[in-house]
Amino acid sequence: MPNKTAVMFPGQGSQYIGMGREFLDRDPEAAALLARAEEISGLPLKRLCLEGPEEELTRTLHLQPALTAVNLICWQALAKKGVRADYFVGHSLGEYAALSAAGVLTFEDTIKLVTHRGSLMEREAAANPGGMAAVVKLDIEAVREIVDHARAHGRLAVANHNSAAQVVISGDNAALAAAAEMVKEKGGKSIPLKVSGAWHSELIAGAVDDFSALLAELPVAAPQAPILFNVTAAPESDPAEIRAIMARQIAASVRWYEIVQRLLAEEVRCFIEVGPKNVLSGLLKKIIPADVECTVIQVDTPQGVEQLVAN
After folding, report:
1. Number of domains the chain is built from
2. Secondary structure of the chain: what % helix, strand, coil (to 5)?
3. pLDDT (tens digit, 9 = 90+) per residue, 76-89?
4. Do 27 and 113 reside in the same domain of the chain?
5. What NCBIfam families does the annotation carry (predicted)?
6. Catalytic residue among 62, 116, 200, 253
7. pLDDT tens digit string along 131-167?
């Protein structure tokens, strides 16, 4: 069986001021895509991406359409060069770029959804303040046990299972503080994250119904190539099921480690991170066993596209 390729899209945390600049300077189609995203979102995305300020770019309402548009600008450049994927995946917000790249959603509907998602998540974070922390040096079973015990102090959940020894937890600040003490006792380390809400936890579950209502209005197609979804770590092709999965995704755990394990089992040996920075590439290097030969590439500039195509 020949080796396969997975295209991966990053989520919140991969942004930086200046992202997408070289595509926008060189490619009229990239500029047109961002202009369309600005029109749909009603937000000054070009200014935010290129000039910031950082606190405005990183605001959830702004960041979700901005990063999604840049991810898809990068993918458009690769697709024009004939790059194809056997699988699409995205980490949290990045899953929306995967849906668009796989033909499940139009670009316009993708931007409409992530703008609405950002607005709903901001609303729920204001109503239910909380935070997130990365737990390192402990496996998922140990973290789940800690989360169960720390729930005596408030709402808490496993938000992201990123690698064998990196798990993100999310919830009430009192529960996070209690969990941090338990993590320390077990020999791990809890690192508070600079986020504005308790993403992927029940604290923002109030967004699910309103988000579902918008999803129900939009056309959803079967993927042109399989997507492994964050919520299930499995493929799904039925549009009704995809709607249900994506509505749950806001408040559900991101099963990234399981997704990568599944891709490796499916003979994926080339991973292309499409979008700013190399967060997902870094995680992959922690997940892929030393005896499994894989190519991991990150692309967010025209030069990166040319290098990938040349190889």
Report:
1. 2
2. 50, 15, 30
3. 999 999 999 999 99
4. yes
5. fabD
6. 200
7. 999 999 999 999 999 999 999 999 999 999 999 999 9
